[in-house]
Amino acid sequence: MERSFAKEIESLRLGDGDIFRGEGILAVTKAILQSGVSYVGGYQGAPVSHLVDVLVQAQDMLDDLGIHLETCTNEASAAALLGASIHYPARGCVTWKAIVGTNVASDALSNLASPGVAGGALIVVGEDYGEGASVIQERSHAYAMKSSIWLLDPRPDLPMITRCVEEGFELSEATNTPVMLELRIRACHVTGEFPAKNNKPAKVSRNSRLPGPAAFNYDRLAHPPATFMQEKLKLEQRLPAARKFILERGLNETMPGDLSEIGIVVQGGLYNALNRALMNLGLADAFGNSRVPTLVLNVTYPLVPEQLVQFCTGKRAVLMVEEGSPDYIEQALHTALRRADVNTRVHGKGMLPAAGEYSIEALTRGLLAFVKTEQPQIDVSAADAAFNGALENRKTAQTLIGTNLPLRPPTFCTGCPERPVFTAIKLVEREIGKVHVAADIGCHALATFAPFSLGHSILGYGMSLASAAGVGPLMNTRSLAIMGDGGFWHNGVLSGVASAMFNRGDGVLVVMQNGYTSATGVQYIPSSAGNRVDGLASGSDIETTVKALGVKWVKRIRSYSLGTMRETLRDALTTTTKGLKIILAEGECQLARQRRLRSDEAKALKSGERVLRTRFGIDDAVCTGDHSCIRLSGCPSLTIKPNPDPLRTDPVASVNSGCVGCGHCGEVAHAAVLCPSFYKTEIVHNPGWWDRFSDRLHRAVIGWLGGSKAAPAPMPAAGE
Amino acid sequence: MNQTRPLCILIAAMGGEGGGVLTGWIVDAAERAGYPVQSTSIPGVAQRTGATTYYIEIWPEKTTQRPVMCLNPMPGQVDVMIASEFVEAGRAIANGFVSPDRTLLIASTHRIFAVAEKSAMGDGRYDTGKLFRAAKDHARHTILFDMDQAAKDAGSILNAVLLGALAGSGTLPLDAAAFEDGIRTEGKAVESNLAGFRFGLSHGQNEIEARADVLSSLPPAAAMPALADRIARLPMAVQKFAAEGIKRLVDYQGVAYARLYLDRLDTVAKLGDEALANETARHLALRMSFEDVIRVAQLKLKPERFAAIEREQRVKPGQPYTVAEFLKPGVEEIASLLPPAMARSVIALCERRGWTEKLHLAMTVQSNRIGGYLKLRMLAGLRGWRPRSARYAEEQARIEDWLDLIRRAAALNLHLAREIVDCARLIKGYGDTFKRGAGNFERIRDRVILPALEHRLSTTAATDALVQARTAALADPDGQSLGNMLGDFEASLRPAVPQAAE
């Protein structure tokens, strides 16, 4: 919330005649504003967090347009928000991360798709798939098919992406069906440009309200027998209407090519990579002029059988380029051709990998196989040699470098208030033995990496306590569930806490109260100290909430107080008191805190105010290079350096300049009885007369006693 | 068909380093010059320090028609590989993104250690030596130097130096001015970033080899005339460590103690093996300057220590500051300052009552404030008392035992003796760390060294086992690997007894 999107907001104000330049997800945001939406909502998650984040800071622009913005507490509430479009001619757009968000939203999605919509309903899902993904790899396609939601997968090019947003609303209205737009993670962050249009105020908006509710209509409820009629509507009216719209608007693109005996059918999102792979074979240029006819599916559901048949007719073979599994499109293509009695061979999975991201490398390999099989007269030996040469080069490099390059998984930020909790868990495990740790989604999941390696399972966002419900009763020792405050409000409060109370659960739950959903880029949650609407706290407090649910054993501990945290954890895990035990580990997200503090501190320093700056350090001479401190912390600013002692060889621990002085090092040294090499300095900037006087006094007396006068060494003129 | 291909730039960085800023600068410069450009990334949002990449394609011709550009790199088709850290450069090479016919590799040679490297119980640092070779072998051209240091010198961020190196390389159709304009337009820390940029620019045009970490040269032989003579009589190779050793021990306890060090060293030196004597000189000095409460107080009060703190923490002349020490000696550590008989009864009492693990004297002492200074000075002043303490007696016995093992082993096999010397590196630290290390040494002594010395085990088998045992002891803090290793080793020695049924 502290990050400023001022620059991004400026580009959302562009109008007719301007050229928009920026990232994919921001272009989507702009296209939404150009589409005359009445309301927008969503739940944060990479890679679509920006959509809502930017709009949150563009409140005055939304006010001008009369757009309502809802920052939802989870994806289910975001999906349910689209209920506004069932009866009213209001366009709405919501966003979340797929596949996990769609899972959470699916109840509302089913019951939205069934009655259908009057106003255009668009769902923008960020596909966290492939390299850098943080969730399991499943296909949004399955949701589109099962619920009859149309699925757009545009070419990763801003004009096409924004066109799909705008025409997505139209498609939704023309077919009374919600539309889902999927964007892969790299497409969300791809930069590009498109000609902007003026933002459009909606017919129905906060500035132009509906006079009253729609007439009662049983047919719009998701209840039998209305649902039987809705099921028929989906298949008999909406589906044909969608196919007609797709054809009429030319949403899928046919690219010509002179090698008419073969063809390629490709998901829009993979088009750019496919074109590069064709270039590698000498079959295309960088401007998309290809020798192989290509059908680009910017709409991947529904498919238009006539279009597929027409494209394939007269061809010896086509290659179906479809990422992910199962191969829904490939199966549908087979069915369409069989039904039309067209005997074109279909290659797909097999020549292309069954699993994994369709990188240019994977596509080049597949295309080489396809061309060699179906067009052997084309000489691809040069492409083959170049491709294999590159792979050979990689192999020799790997042999030379070896397989032991240190991995670098993400870790807690310097000063993160969640780190000390895991240190405390490690220390308690030394005393009472290992415990089952149910991990959750959020920054705290980083404790599953070294040096903590804590966490047995991750079942979903806010699901840790629920996932430990079956473990606890089967084990002699109590289990420990970890949850963030984001996960708590997302659904942990009900699926975890209420359920544990209901079932007399006897586990321990640690809720990390850092005040935001931090892993998604620091957004406000119901228990934040602020709220985007009026800056005030929402008034929803976790302690009060769990007490109201009947939890008796609740402890609120400052997470940096390692000793107290250790005692409390030990007590919670070993006490004879039955029932759910909740520890609220409090400490503000350091990322948010530093953003605020840094500017405050810079201002204070400039205006001559007294500022105390705390840093930690390690005495080289005292450190023996065992690194226990690192194994209990993993702080990025706690690192190692060559041992300056000529007699020792193991590197010594060292605190680098990134230290924010959170104090965890000192707490660990004390709580774990490590070694006396840690020290803390407090340096006074803009000292007052008392600081100067007492400093001089201490220096003088210590000097007189024969100690170091600590006469400061001359400093280079480096600025503060 | 147009044969032109885009210029592909891959940037490997760590989350939170601002790789996006560097990407932005490059994109901005290309746009400014009128070349179609596209970038993309997989940012880790708030997930810090994990490895990540940014990818840019620049169309090398000025055109208004936008080419189809890609969102991920292809092995063998990267023109410029930029890495903000050396192991990340290695990762890029291993992933095939650096190729001899095409790729310019721009990388900073400094290291940011990964958690696995930092948390090893001894030295877990990845050996970057082979990365230099891999970089030379696999890149068309390299620009490698410590850009972190360069950035610090210039007061800029590392990305500015990387950008400068890229501009200086002349690989892109963009001149330095285009990049500089980008930095100015962005408007953040303009002057310092331009300084960093220019530094990188000049290096990009004129490669400078990375400097390897050279161990600081040893100080001149100790200034103890009486002892200097004796050092001179030691083999040349041993003199450096011996000189360092007596310097340390004179400071630690006194001249007589340093003399004892030389007496002990002589008994090993006269066995005639220089390598053995050299390593013994090193470890013996460390073992004899064992860490106790007195030693810690001594070290904490050294004037050069305060000078170092002021340098590291950037304290300005005359600026008030305090240094707080985190000390938490356990009851054992305190009791071990008593005479042996007394210490034994106190420790026995504590153990009976279960206090040993629980009783610690937690102190936060401000060592540059009068009260804290006096406390530490009182402790450091116990130096004269130290030889009467229980810990001293214990340590001397341990050291004599170790030397005895070395000498006995040397009579059988020099390799074995050298390995025994090296086992001393297991014994270090304070409190639990010390106990664990000393315990591990005892286990190795009883189960490998003694059997070898008593001819129950061949010296070659024992030598191999010692190397493995040392690695195992440093593999985990629970002693599990060592336990497994010793168990397996002993099992391998038992003659296989044929089963009656067979």
From TrEMBL, chain A:
<feature type="domain" description="Thiamine pyrophosphate enzyme TPP-binding">
    <location>
        <begin position="440"/>
        <end position="576"/>
    </location>
</feature>
<keyword id="KW-0479">Metal-binding</keyword>
<dbReference type="Pfam" id="PF02775">
    <property type="entry name" value="TPP_enzyme_C"/>
</dbReference>
<keyword id="KW-0670">Pyruvate</keyword>
<dbReference type="InterPro" id="IPR011766">
    <property type="entry name" value="TPP_enzyme_TPP-bd"/>
</dbReference>
<dbReference type="GO" id="GO:0030976">
    <property type="term" value="F:thiamine pyrophosphate binding"/>
</dbReference>
<dbReference type="InterPro" id="IPR045025">
    <property type="entry name" value="HACL1-like"/>
</dbReference>
<dbReference type="GO" id="GO:0044281">
    <property type="term" value="P:small molecule metabolic process"/>
</dbReference>
<dbReference type="GO" id="GO:0003824">
    <property type="term" value="F:catalytic activity"/>
</dbReference>
<dbReference type="GO" id="GO:0046872">
    <property type="term" value="F:metal ion binding"/>
</dbReference>
<protein>
    <submittedName>
        <fullName>Indolepyruvate ferredoxin oxidoreductase subunit alpha</fullName>
    </submittedName>
</protein>
<dbReference type="InterPro" id="IPR029061">
    <property type="entry name" value="THDP-binding"/>
</dbReference>
UniProtKB/TrEMBL annotation, chain B:
<keyword id="KW-0560">Oxidoreductase</keyword>
<feature type="domain" description="DUF6537">
    <location>
        <begin position="239"/>
        <end position="446"/>
    </location>
</feature>
<dbReference type="Pfam" id="PF01558">
    <property type="entry name" value="POR"/>
</dbReference>
<protein>
    <submittedName>
        <fullName>Indolepyruvate oxidoreductase subunit beta family protein</fullName>
    </submittedName>
</protein>
<dbReference type="InterPro" id="IPR002869">
    <property type="entry name" value="Pyrv_flavodox_OxRed_cen"/>
</dbReference>
<dbReference type="InterPro" id="IPR052198">
    <property type="entry name" value="IorB_Oxidoreductase"/>
</dbReference>
<dbReference type="InterPro" id="IPR019752">
    <property type="entry name" value="Pyrv/ketoisovalerate_OxRed_cat"/>
</dbReference>
<feature type="domain" description="Pyruvate/ketoisovalerate oxidoreductase catalytic">
    <location>
        <begin position="15"/>
        <end position="200"/>
    </location>
</feature>
<dbReference type="InterPro" id="IPR046667">
    <property type="entry name" value="DUF6537"/>
</dbReference>
<dbReference type="Pfam" id="PF20169">
    <property type="entry name" value="DUF6537"/>
</dbReference>
<dbReference type="GO" id="GO:0016903">
    <property type="term" value="F:oxidoreductase activity, acting on the aldehyde or oxo group of donors"/>
</dbReference>
<keyword id="KW-0670">Pyruvate</keyword>
